[in-house]
Amino acid sequence: MNLNATLFAQMVVFLILAWFTMKFVWPPLIKALDERAKKIADGLAAAEQGKAELEAANRRIDQSLAEARDQGQQRIADAEKRAVLVADELKANAQAEAARIIATAKADADQQLIQARETLRREVATLAVKGAEQILKREIDAKAHADLLNQLQAEL
Fold first, then answer.
1. pLDDT tens-digit profile of 52-61?
2. What is the largest CA-CA distance in the chain?
């Protein structure tokens, strides 16, 4: 065997194998690697986009929480104002009711005072008539002297 022929044959086989590999094996491998690289790049881009969306969502959530907090504080302030107004209204109603009760009590007291004075005048007139009767030792006719008794009653 000839060493040159063996080397030549091996070189031919190698070139055929290289050509076969470049023609049939290499393109699917390159295609698979390119697809894999594209998927990885797409995944990284999607991850970056997801990260940006997450940050935007977090900002929106923070903004919504701040608005909700502000609205809650506003509602509390409105409720406190309304409570103060209701308390003032109740106080005014209570004062008006107290004034009305006091006025009614004063009117009742004045009416009772007038009645007591009238009763006292009648009793004094009756006592005066009895006293005069005893002084004169005769009976005074109340019907006959009604004008005199009314005048006496008015003076008392």
1. 999 999 999 9
2. 193
pLDDT tens-digit readout, 114-154: 999 888 888 887 877 777 766 665 555 666 566 666 766 67
Domain ranges of the chain: 28-155
* Range list of H helices, 137-145: none
Closest CA to 149 of 31, 130, 2, 9: 130
Cα separation, 27 vs 10, in Å, equals 24
Other residues' Cβ atoms within 10 Å of the Cβ of residue 126: 13
137 φψ region: left (φ > 0), alpha (ψ -120 to 50), beta (else): left
**pTM (global) more than 0.85:** no
113, burial (CB in 10 Å: exposed 0-12, middle 13-18, buried 19+)? exposed
